[in-house]
Write a sequence for this structure.
């Protein structure tokens, strides 16, 4: 199985979820992919094909439920990245009382890319790193499918 994981680790499918906010982080990530397509990262709209769930923007109670559904549909090994101050910390909007939460209160986050907005290179590097780490953890017995049970 490790040879297959090695191949998959070189071609990474990302499900980009923009939970709201100004959309700056999501657009920054899409631009990074356009400018640097050679790293083998592509976007998918299908959670069953996704290696990484990449979440940007402000997460409220409604989007939190939807994010959990998406995560459960992804195949293991899988990874979650929180991008930007909104997804990583709730940012400015956290005090508004609309259920805006950091992503790590909802899903098992593997990495946060902090900043408003985070750098493009940092986003791409983080995606590559979480996939590589996720495959290693999986081989060492981590079962992503049981983490929301
Ligand atoms: S972290 Fe900044 S750039 Fe990203 S969605 Fe929030 S406000 Fe916009």
């Amino acid at each position: 199985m490790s040879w297959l994981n090695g191949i998959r680790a070189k071609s990474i499918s990302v499900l980009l979820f923009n939970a709201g906010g100004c959309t700056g982080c999501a657009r920054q990530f899409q631009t990074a992919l356009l400018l640097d397509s050679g790293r083998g990262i592509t976007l998918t709209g299908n959670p069953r094909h996704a290696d990484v769930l990449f979440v940007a923007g402000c997460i409220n109670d409604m989007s939190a439920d939807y994010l959990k559904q998406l995560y459960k549909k992804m195949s293991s090994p899988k990874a979650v990245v929180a991008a930007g101050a909104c997804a990583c910390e709730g940012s400015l909007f956290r005090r508004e009382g609309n259920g805006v939460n950091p992503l790590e209160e909802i899903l098992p986050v593997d990495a946060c890319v902090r900043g408003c907005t985070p750098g493009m290179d940092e986003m791409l590097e983080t995606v590559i790193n979480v996939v590589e780490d996720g495959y290693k953890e999986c081989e060492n017995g981590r079962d992503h499918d049981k983490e929301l049970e």
Q: What stands out?
A: Residues 21-22, 24-25, 56-57, 84-86, 91, 116-117 surround iron/sulfur cluster (CB under 6 Å).
